[in-house]
Every structure is written in structure tokens, then in C-alpha cells.
Write a structure and sequence with these properties.
The complex is a heterodimer of chains A (about 100) and B (about 1050). By secondary structure, chain A is α+β, with helices and mostly antiparallel strands. Chain A has 2 helices and 4 strands, in the order βαββαβ. Chain A is globular, with a radius of gyration of 14 Å. Classes of the chains: A alpha+beta (about 100), B alpha+beta (about 1050).
């Protein structure tokens, strides 16, 4: 069981939802509006007048074998246009209730 | 859920809402009446008081003055003036524009209650009369006939006037100059006296003979017959054979003492149309009715009704006020259409995409249609002001949609689906779009609060622009994203680019322009001092040029009509006046080939009581109206022709006073003249001063139509009765004056009836026996002791009756009015003022320059105040938007250049600055400020994103050049048809077009340089606020 957190430009919301659906991932938690900026190139997404764009974040707990499939999809989305921006981070789920 | 995402997610609902708006708008548009200007009610109330037998000066002191004194305290009163003539006092109260006249009339009525105690006993109760522009005639027709001329009045009343009266909205229709049939009995006094008869006796006989009477009924056998005495004249020929009595055994018939004529009444009145006898028909509308729709119906009906008239009767239009309105509105609507096309061209040029252009252009009809709803709901009309407002709006309503759409397509180009892009892209810009809209509203909204005449004109403009702009913003954040989501497609880069495509042809051009501008910008930033110097020079230069600017209140409009009121020497006989009239007609016939129709009338028709309200009449007065061919088809303007006629009238020695005008002053309170008002009690002094001033003004070039308001004294014959001698003969004033009246004016003895119509039978002296003082003195009066001559008991003397006395602000006044000819109203007023300064004015007199000039000054003052309010409001809105006191100043630096541009454009095209052009200048603020905001805002953005100051400025300039050019170009091209139009009414709006184009071209170019340079000068390299925040945190030593 791994936790995958996907943080992406809100303009990609539909694509991310579609990916989760096609992979049969049912459970997730979403933050529709989050702020942030990329470590190297990514433009700030602050929802301000200066940086009007916004990000969204989705965290989902998936079986280990699905992680690579999911990351592959995320990479594909990113390749459409790198300016838009999507990132995914994976970590272990130690326990759950 | 936000408004834009709802719109995108519920496209059908969005579409339906806008469809509903459009349907409602089209419904309002179809129902909208057409007019020239917004409804302007000239706020005046007149108080008529008659006091029979009092002379003008008695009326002044006993009636006019007390009434003025009590009414002076009525609220909202702007000015009080009065005219006192023999027997009548007319006090006019002029109120502030926008005053509720019903309320004012009540106040006046209450106040008049106080005067009753003060007014002389014999004076009648004052009558209150509300003046209304609606009372003005809207159409004049000339009706001519050959054979059927004599019975024309009956024919017309029955077949034209009565049917037309049934049209909804017609107030009244009157026939002027109609021949009136009358049976006149012209008595020879010598013969009459010889037979011992009098006019009254003859009248009694006629009355007694012309009689039908039921005399009961008779039973004969089984039948009952009503009995009637049938004595009425069956033909007018019977009248001459009436037996008046017996004298020395001989029967005396009417023909023995008089001639009987059954023909047209002998009136001292002459009505000619194109030199032929004719009748004028005058149509008035009901208060609040619409001129154009009535005129349409009347013209349609007339075509049908004319078929019922005899073949030789011709009906010509002398003047139809709806024609000019209709043509003007049509012209303006056409320019609106051209403006629309130009905007489409500009958008497609810059965007190069059909679908995008369609989405953007769609906001135009939606926004404009909402304006129609406003007009319909508020009960306004489609007029020059509302249409001008729409043509201003047309270039501005696309701006918001463009900003939204550009951002959406940016997202789509980056790979977002159109639906998502539409929502998120709108989310990013919608607040910025609303903020710029607020600035525009700040400029236009104060227009709705201006007072006075200017206010009435521009309320609509303020509302319409505000409403269309707000609607366009709403459309930009709802229907634009909705349609973008549905219609826009991702464009593949790989698509083959055809050689004539936008990318190949126009895009390189635009890129070159961007680069060129960036170079200029970089140079300017390095040479700030030179730029500032050049710019200061421009401002100074335009300031100098501003003094050459010609000013006028409203532009003089060529309505294809010249009207003149000409006064000959007082007391001039009617025949002589007619002769002059014919001369004048000949002159026009030969020298004015542009005329289509001339209608003249001279003399006084004593029955035309109502029409006397609109024109003076008298045996020495000529009224002339000329219709010219359409303005586009002739070289000379109506003002040129009016001047030609003035020159001719000047050469006629008989003419003492004339007033030649080119406009019907019916739509506006203003007009176009300078009035020099001379206040002072003494007639002689003020008359002399008026003549001196008039003489001086005559030398001023461009001063024409100089009219002194005070009439010359008029000669009259006065019968002074000797009371003693009268009583010796058993007479009194009442008897004698009735006797004189019956003999000179005539006694209506009875009525001759023919086919349901009644004609007067008038008995009086034949004309030769009542046309000299001797003849009048010779009038015989029968007394118990034989015949007494009027000369024995009375004196007939020639007498000069005093002029009418005019007062204004409760003081006697004489006005010298001057019309400018090929000179600006403001210049003329200045020159007149200079002349007056050099004239010695007697003590107790006061000279004031007013007239339309005064209205102009007032309007300009109002507009000046408006400008100030707008500027303050714009500053406040922007300071709040930018959260900075400095940024609005940088932006507002561009405003003076808009005005410089206006001045350059007006001076170069030799156009007069009127209220409408001034308004155009005020509107510029909105557009210019918008451009500057775009630049400054983007520069701030670039700096916030971490670019250096110079870099930020050039980047902003480069990337915002296209939006700025688009906004400016759409408005400039939208105004171009207005500035270039030349048809009916173009004089009114062309100056506005020129002003806006001049101002915008100039200010756009200057703004693109001066705003970045000012930014560079006023803003320090790094952001102070940020530095302070960092410093505070550094102190914490985290």
C-alpha cells in the first residue's frame, strides 16, 4: 500500500480524474485549490493578481503494483505540455484503520 | 459555484438567459419611438392677465410689477420676465431644467392668490399657462387650388382636417389664410342718410327677414299639417331686393343704399405659396406624442384623402419636422452599422481566428440590445444622443471579451480541454476585467448626475454607456467562456499554413510592430529628459492653440429651411406690404435656385387667434418660410441663403426690422445667438443705448440678423369723445363706440345658410367711406334732434401708442440679439463684449451679454464640473484597485494628451467645439485611462514576477501593445463614420467623432511612450513595501 500525492495545475483536474477512473482507483482525497511553486522551473501558483493560476492536489492510497501505472499516466499528462505542470510523489503507508 | 463555471457547466441555461434578454431587447427596439433629442421640456409657465383699457405703462406698474414681485419667491425659479402691452400683461417664469412643472404651477397659483388684493379692480383674474414644446407645430402643408379656391375651407375641413384629427396623437389642426365666404353689405352712407336709415336699422331688417319659424299645426280632414313660415334667404341674390322701408311713398330696397357681395371676405391678409394663393395647414401634436410616428400616419392618410378632393387641389409639404429627424436617425444608424463592421475587421485582423472573432463580436449585439431595454423601460426615445452613445459603446464592449478569450485560448494552446480552459482561464482574469469596467463606469456614471440642459441631454448617454459596458463585462464572464468551451478547438501546430493565412500575412507584420515599439520604448527610457521636454512642448502648444478654438453651444444645423419675419415701417398699409412681399418673392425666385417652396403671408387675419401665438402678424408684417432642397445636393448652406436674404432686406428702405432664421427652435431651448440685454428704466436712454450697441455690433464681422427687441411706437387713430356734447345729444360712450364699430368694423346682422354651412352677413360702410380721418369724423349718428356728425362730438387724432414694455429680472429690458454667421458663438460674444466695454453707458443702465451664449457658458461650466468629478472618481477607483496613491497619477498623466489631441483635431479641421464635442472629450478619459491601466498593471505584474524595472516596462509594453491598439482602433474606426458623415444632422455628431478620433489617435501614441517613461521616473528600482517587510523579518533574526 502506497500513498500517491498528485499536485497539478487545476486545468488538469479532468485529466487526473479520468486517469484515476481508468485505473479503477476509487478512493482519493482532493484539495481543489492549493498554492505552491516548483522547485526548479515551475511557476508559482498563488491565485493572486501576479500569479493568477492555481493548483489542485489529490492523494490516493493504491496497491504497490498500481503505483507505476499511475506514475506513467502522470508522466504522459506532463508531456502534453510541461508548462502546465503536474507532479506525483509516492510514500509508504505504514498502517491504516 | 462561481458565475463563470455555472455558465460553462449549464450552457443551455446561459444561452436561454441571453436569448431572453435579446428577445426582450428586440421587442423594446421595435416599440421605441424616434426623436431628434431626448425629451426636453422647456420649463416655463406664463401668467396672462388682461386689464382692458389700460395702456402698456399702466399695465406694467399695476399688473406686471405686482405679479412679478409675488412670483419671485416661487421655488426653482431661474428667471422671471414680462411683457406689458396695451390691455395685456404676460409674465413668464422660467424654471430650472428638470423642475416638475405641475408642482411649480401649483406654487404659482398659490402665490397668485396673494396678488389678487393688489391688482386693480378692472383686471381679470390671471390665467396660468404651461408652456410646452409639445405645443409647437410639427408639420406645415401648403394647399393650393385654382377653380375650387373659393369653397376650399369647407372642402378641407370636411375631407382633410376632420379625418386627420382622428389620428392618435394629433393635438390640433388649423388652416391659416383660408378664404372665408361672407355676404357683405357695403353701405353708401350718403344715400343711407338721405333715406333716413342707419346701419343698425338695416341690420334689424335683415335679421327680421332672414327667418324660418314653426307656426303651429293645422287639422284638415283626417290629416294634421305642421305649419311653417319659410322666410330664410334661399340665395344671396335675394338679399339685395330686401325692402328696407318706404320714403316719400317710394319703396327703398337694399340695393338702393348698398351693394351686396357674396364672395370672399375682405381681409387684410395675404397668403401665397410659390406666388399662388393658397392655404397653410398647421398640425400640432398632443403633449408626449411622438412626432415621427404621427407624421408617418399623417403622410399616409393624406395620400388617401387627397383622392377625395377636387383635381385642382394640390397639397405640398412646406415643412415636416419628422423628415429631418428620420433622416438624421437613419444616417446615424448607418454609421452605427459601419462602426460594427470596422470593429469586426479590427478583431479579425488582430486575432486571425474566425471562431474567436465570432464569440467576441457576439457581445456587441447583446450589450447594445440591453441598451434598448433601458430606453424602452425608462420611456426614452431612439435619438441622436442614445445612438451616439451606442456608437461609443460599440468599440468598448468587445474589450472584456477579448481579454477573457485570449486567456482561454492560451490555456487551450497549452493543452487544456476547452471546457476546463474556459473555467480556469476566466477564473484567472475575471476580477481584473471587472476592475477595468469600474474605471469606465467611473467616467460615465457622473454624466447621469449633471444638472440643467446639459444634464437632460446626457443622462441617457451616461446610462447607456454604463449599462452596455456592465452588460459586456457580464457577457464576457459568462457567455464568452461558455461559447469558448463549445466552439474553440486545439490548433495543431503541424497544420499546413496557407500563404494567405493570418499567420503568414498579418502576424509577421504585428511582430515587426511589437519589435519596433520595443525599440522606441528602450530609447525613451534612456532619454527620459528629451521625452519629457517634447511632451511638455506639446502640452504648451495645445494650450496656445486652444485659444483659437471656436466655441458654440449647439452646432448650427442645416435643416433645409429658412424662415423670416419682416417688419415694415409701422402703420404701413396692407397693400404696400403686399407689394414688398411680391418683390421679396421675385428676388428669391431669381437668386435662390435651391428653393423648393416659398410660403409667404402678410397682413393680419383677425380670426387666426391661435396661430398668433407662434407668429406676429400685422398689416406691416411679412412672414416667410422657404423649404430648400436636401443639404447634400446643394452648395450653399441654409445659413448662406439666410444671409443673402438679410443683405437684400437691408437694401429695402421700407424694412425696419427683420429676423431671418434657419432653424426651428422647437427641439431645444437653446438656439444660437448672443443677446445683449440692456436694463434701465428710461425708454429714451435705453433705446439710444440699444441703437448705439446695435450700430457697433453691425461693424463686427460675422454679426448678422441684429434685432432690437423693443418695437417702435405705432401710430393709431384715437377718438376722444366730448362728454358734454354727447349728453346734450342724449348719447353716451357706449352708444357712440358701438355706432363707430358697426360702421367701420361692421355689424354681423344675420347668417346666410347654404347646404348646412353658415356665412356671416356683414353690414358696414363701403370701404371708401371709412378710409380717412375726415370720413370717420363724418360718420352720422342719429339722435332725437336729427343727425349729429362724429366730428361734432369728438375729435379723431393721430396718436403714437407706446411700445410694449419688456422686463426681465423685474427690470425694464431691451435686448439686442445677434446671430453669428461663419463665426463661432463664443468669438462673437467676446467681440461684442469688447465693443460694449468701450461704450459710455448712462447711469442707471446695466448691460449684460446672454442668450444662447449664456446657455453655452452654463453648459461648459457644467461639463467642467463633470470633468472634475469624473477625474476624482477615476482616481479613487484606481487608487483602490492598485492599492497605491502613485499608480493612478502615472496613469492619469495620459489624460492631458487626449485633450491636446482633441484641440489639434478641432483646430486642424476647423470644427467648432460645442457641447457634443466637449462630451466626446470627456468620454476619451475612459478609453485613455483604460489603455494606461493595461500598461501599468502589466508592468506591475512583471515586476512582481521578479523582472527588473526596465525589463518589466519593456516587456509590458511589448506584450500589451496589441490590446492597447485594439481598444483604440475599435473606437477610432467606430467613430470614423460619424466624423465623415455628411447627411442630415451630421453637424450635430461630426464634431464628436472628430474630437474622439483626434484625441484618441494622439493620446494612444503619446500614452505608449509617456506612461512607461513616467512609470520609470516615479517608481524606484525596488519595491519599498517588500524591502520593509524583509527588513522587519531580518530583525527577528530567525
Amino acid at each position: 500500500m502506497k500513498a500517491v500525492m498528485i499536485i497539478y495545475n487545476q486545468a488538469l483536474t479532468e485529466k487526473v480524474d479520468y486517469v484515476l477512473d481508468t485505473l479503477g482507483i476509487r478512493g482519493f482525497t482532493q484539495w481543489p485549490l492549493v498554492h505552491g511553486r516548483g522547485s526548479t522551473e515551475g511557476e508559482p501558483r498563488m491565485g493572486t493578481h501576479t500569479w493568477p493560476e492555481m493548483n489542485a492536489a489529490t492523494i490516493t492510497m493504491v496497491p504497490d503494483e498500481q503505483v507505476d501505472l499511475l506514475l506513467e499516466k502522470v508522466r504522459k499528462i506532463d508531456q502534453i505540455n510541461t508548462e502546465v505542470g503536474i507532479r506525483a510523489f509516492v510514500w509508504n503507508v505504514e498502517k491504516s484503520v | 459555484m462561481s458565475i463563470y463555471s455555472s455558465a460553462v457547466k449549464k450552457p443551455i441555461t446561459t444561452l436561454m438567459i441571453f436569448a431572453a434578454v435579446v428577445v426582450f431587447g428586440i421587442y423594446s427596439f421595435v416599440k421605441l419611438p424616434i426623436d431628434l433629442y431626448p425629451e426636453i421640456e422647456y420649463p416655463a409657465i406664463m401668467v396672462f392677465t388682461s386689464y382692458n383699457g389700460a395702456s402698456a405703462s399702466d399695465i406694467e406698474t399695476n399688473v406686471s410689477e405686482p405679479i412679478e414681485n409675488t412670483l419671485n419667491a416661487v421655488s426653482n425659479l431661474k428667471q422671471i420676465s414680462s411683457v406689458s402691452r396695451d390691455n395685456v400683461s404676460v409674465v413668464t417664469l422660467e424654471f430650472e431644467y428638470g423642475t416638475d412643472l405641475d408642482g411649480a404651477a401649483n406654487d404659482v397659483r398659490d402665490a397668485l392668490g396673494w396678488t389678487e388684493a393688489v391688482l386693480p379692480e378692472g383686471a381679470d383674474e390671471p390665467i396660468i399657462y404651461k408652456f410646452s414644446t409639445n405645443m409647437m407645430p410639427i408639420m406645415f402643408f401648403a394647399i393650393m387650388a385654382d377653380e375650387s379656391y373659393e369653397g376650399l375651407e369647407e372642402e378641407l375641413t370636411e375631407k382633410i382636417v376632420n379625418p386627420l384629427n382622428r389620428i392618435d396623437g394629433i393635438g390640433s389642426i388649423s388652416l391659416i389664410g383660408a378664404p372665408i365666404r361672407e355676404v357683405s353689405v357695403n353701405v353708401d352712407p350718403r344715400r343711407m342718410e338721405a333715406y333716413n336709415l342707419s346701419i343698425e336699422q338695416i341690420g334689424n331688417v335683415l335679421r327680421a327677414e332672414n327667418l324660418n319659424m314653426p307656426a303651429g299645426s293645422v287639422d284638415m280632414g283626417e290629416m294634421n299639417y305642421p305649419l311653417r313660415v319659410q322666410g330664410e334667404f334661399e340665395s344671396s341674390d335675394q338679399i339685395r331686393d330686401i325692402v328696407l322701408g318706404n320714403y316719400q311713398g317710394k319703396t327703398i330696397r337694399l340695393s338702393d343704399v348698398a351693394t351686396v357681395k357674396d364672395s370672399i371676405r375682405d381681409v387684410k391678409y395675404d397668403e401665397k405659396i410659390n406666388g399662388q394663393p393658397g392655404i397653410r395647414m398647421m398640425l400640432m401634436k398632443q403633449s408626449g406624442a411622438n412626432t415621427v410616428s404621427i407624421a408617418k400616419k399623417v403622410n399616409k392618410e393624406l395620400v388617401e384623402l387627397q383622392k377625395t378632393l377636387p383635381k385642382d387641389v394640390k397639397i405640398l409639404t412646406i415643412w415636416d419636422s419628422s423628415e429631418f429627424i428620420q433622416n438624421s436617425i437613419n444616417n446615424l444608424s448607418m454609421t452605427l452599422l459601419y462602426a460594427f463592421i470596422f470593429v469586426v475587421i479590427v478583431v479579425i485582423f488582430f486575432l486571425g481566428r474566425w471562431r474567436a472573432t465570432f464569440i467576441i463580436i457576439l457581445t456587441i449585439p447583446i450589450s447594445l440590445i440591453v441598451a434598448f431595454i433601458y430606453l424602452g423601460v425608462s420611456g426614452n426615445t431612439l435619438n441622436i444622443i442614445s445612438l451616439s452613445a451606442l456608437s461609443i459603446g460599440i468599440g468598448m464592449v468587445v474589450d472584456d471579451a477579448i481579454v477573457v478569450l485570449e486567456n482561454i485560448s492560451r490555456h487551450i494552446d497549452r493543452g487544456a480541454t476547452p471546457r476546463e480552459a474556459a473555467i480556469y482561464a476566466t477564473n484567472e482574469v475575471w476580477l481584473a476585467v471587472i476592475a477595468t469596467t469600474l474605471t469606465i463606469v467611473a467616467v460615465f456614471f457622473p454624466l447621469t448626475m449633471v444638472s440643467g440642459l446639459t444634464g437632460i441631454m446626457f443622462h441617457q448617454l451616461g446610462w447607456i454607456v454604463t449599462i452596455t459596458i456592465v452588460t459586456s463585462t457580464l457577457a464576457a464572464i459568462t457567455i464568452t467562456p461558455m461559447l469558448s468551451a463549445k466552439m474553440l478547438r486545439l490548433r495543431s501546430e503541424k497544420r499546413k499554413k496557407r500563404w494567405f493565412s493570418h499567420e503568414r500575412l498579418i502576424l509577421p507584420l504585428l511582430n515587426r510592430l511589437d519589435n519596433f515599439y520595443a525599440r522606441i520604448l528602450r530609447w525613451s527610457l534612456r532619454h527620459k529628459k528629451i521625452v519629457v521636454a517634447i511632451v511638455t512642448l506639446i502640452i504648451i502648444l495645445s494650450g496656445v492653440l486652444a485659444s483659437n478654438l471656436k466655441t458654440a453651444f449647439m452646432p448650427e444645423v442645416d435643416q433645409g429651411r429658412v424662415a423670416a419675419e419682416i417688419e415694415l415701417q409701422p402703420g404701413m398699409a396692407f397693400e404696400q406690404t403686399m407689394k414688398v412681399t411680391r418683390q421679396l418673392e421675385d428676388f428669391i425666385e431669381q437668386n435662390v435656385p435651391e428653393k423648393e417652396l416659398i410660403s409667404t403671408s402678410c397682413g393680419a387675419d383677425d380670426r387666426a387667434g391661435f396661430t398668433a401665438l407662434f407668429q406676429n402678424s400685422g398689416s406691416n408684417i411679412i412672414n416667410l418660410t422657404m423649404r430648400l432642397t436636401r443639404a447634400e445636393t446643394r452648395e450653399r448652406s441654409s445659413a448662406d441663403i439666410a444671409d443673402l436674404i438679410r443683405d437684400y432686406l437691408e437694401s429695402l428702405p421700407e424694412v425696419t426690422k427683420y429676423n431671418v432664421t434657419t432653424e426651428s427652435r422647437m427641439d431645444m431651448g437653446g438656439g444660437n445667438n448672443v443677446a445683449v440685454e440692456i436694463f434701465g428704466y428710461d425708454f429714451e436712454e435705453t433705446n439710444a443705448l440699444a441703437r448705439e450697441i446695435a450700430g457697433k455690433i453691425e461693424n463686427i464681422e460675422g454679426a448678422s440678423n441684429i434685432v432690437i427687441s423693443r418695437d417702435q411706437s405705432k401710430p393709431e387713430l384715437r377718438v376722444t369723445l366730448d362728454k358734454d356734447k354727447m349728453s346734450q345729444n342724449g348719447l353716451n360712450t357706449a352708444i357712440v363706440s358701438t355706432i363707430i364699430r358697426n360702421r367701420v368694423n361692421g355689424l354681423t346682422a344675420s347668417w346666410y345658410r347654404e347646404s348646412g354651412n353658415e356665412y356671416d352677413i356683414v353690414v358696414r360702410f363701403a370701404e371708401q367711406y371709412r378710409s380717412s380721418i375726415t370720413e370717420i369724423e363724418n360718420i352720422g349718428i342719429q339722435t332725437t334732434g336729427g343727425i349729429v356728425r362724429l366730428g361734432d362730438i369728438a375729435k379723431v387724432e393721430e396718436y403714437w401708442s407706446p411700445p410694449k414694455i419688456e422686463r426681465k429680472r423685474r427690470e425694464r429690458v431691451v435686448t439686442v440679439s445677434v446671430t453669428p454667421f461663419k463665426i463661432a458663438l463664443g468669438d462673437l460674444a467676446d467681440k461684442i463684449k469688447a465693443e460694449i466695454r468701450n461704450i459710455d453707458k448712462p447711469a442707471g443702465t446695466l448691460v449684460n451679454v446672454g442668450g444662447a451664449y449664456e446657455d453655452m457658458e452654463e453648459s461648459f461650466a457644467d461639463l467642467g464640473l463633470l470633468l472634475l468629478v469624473s477625474l476624482i472618481l477615476v482616481y479613487l477607483v484606481m487608487a483602490a484597485q492598485f492599492e497605491s496613491l502613485k499608480m493612478p497619477l502615472i496613469i492619469m498623466v495620459s489624460i492631458p494628451f487626449a485633450f491636446s489631441g482633441v484641440i489639434f483635431a478641432l483646430v486642424m479641421t476647423n470644427t467648432t467645439l460645442g457641447v457634443i464635442a466637449a462630451l466626446g472629450a470627456i468620454m476619451l478619459i475612459g478609453i485613455v485611462v483604460k489603455n494606461a491601466i493595461v500598461l501599468v498593471d502589466f508592468t506591475n505584474l512583471m515586476r512582481d514576477r521578479g523582472h527588473s524595472l526596465d525589463e518589466a516596462i519593456t516587456m509590458a509594453g511589448r506584450s500589451r501593445l496589441r490590446p492597447v491598439l485594439m481598444t483604440s482602433l475599435t473606437t477610432i474606426l467606430g467613430m470614423l463614420p460619424l466624423a465623415l458623415s455628411s447627411g442630415d444632422g451630421s453637424e450635430i455628431w461630426a464634431p464628436m467623432g472628430i474630437a474622439v478620433i483626434g484625441g484618441l489617435v494622439f493620446s494612444t501614441i503619446v500614452t505608449l511612450v509617456i506612461v512607461p517613461v513616467t512609470y520609470r521616473i516615479m517608481v524606484r528600482r525596488s519595491d519599498l513595501r517588500k524591502r520593509r517587510a524583509v527588513k522587519a523579518l531580518q530583525m527577528l533574526d530567525i
